[in-house]
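P.,

For your records, the input lines for the assembly:
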Amino acid sequence: AQSVTQPDIHITVSEGASLELRCNYSYGATPYLFWYVQSPGQGLQLLLKYFSGDTLVQGIKGFEAEFKRSQSSFNLRKPSVHWSDAAEYFCAVGARSGGYQKVTFGTGTKLQVIP
Amino acid sequence: NAGVMQNPRHLVRRRGQEARLRCSPMKGHSHVYWYRQLPEEGLKFMVYLQKENIIDESGMPKERFSAEFPKEGPSILRIQQVVRGDSAAYFCASSSPMGGREYNEQFFGPGTRLTVL
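Structure tokens returned:
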């Protein structure tokens, strides 16, 4: 069964600074990887996804993520953080199991942005 | 093309009452998934349904919880005799049939936030 680890529960960065959120997954075959963002009291918004091909994936709002098979990682990055990026970020892995896909989420990383 | 719809968005129940959460999948989608997000946690899979069939309910609590996806109408997640520990956000996702593809993306609704007093 697949699993996802987000080792950082909370991260604080200054506005304008760079950001990297860590995500490690466990799955035996090629995974389908996702990053979602959730603002307080809101639903999930898909930032980006990796299915195959180029291991550097571009998403919305200036985010990108790099799939590194050797490290089982899919870290999310942004070169310059804006105050509006403060939210909770979830990494997820999807995998085919028994004829359909199952999505497993990490526990999330809360991002605080300070002036 | 409307996305996944969930209603109500917020639901307040007293202990012992029943909660009914509804999910209308995206047009053309016949697969529905329910997830629960407890406070300060990530989303956890509960159940996967196709029209009139429960395919995988391995994440559903054994008692008080049930789900259905009838031939007509939305999918319903039903919680009987709610307790305070049921307070959470419940998200629905939908996808199209696999159709031989390796993976089909799930699209998430805005969630229903259940508060049990």
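Two observations worth noting. The radius of gyration of chain A is 14 Å. Chain A touches chain B at residues 32, 36, 41-44, 46, 49, 51, 90, 92, 94, 96, 98-108 (CB under 8 Å).

Regards
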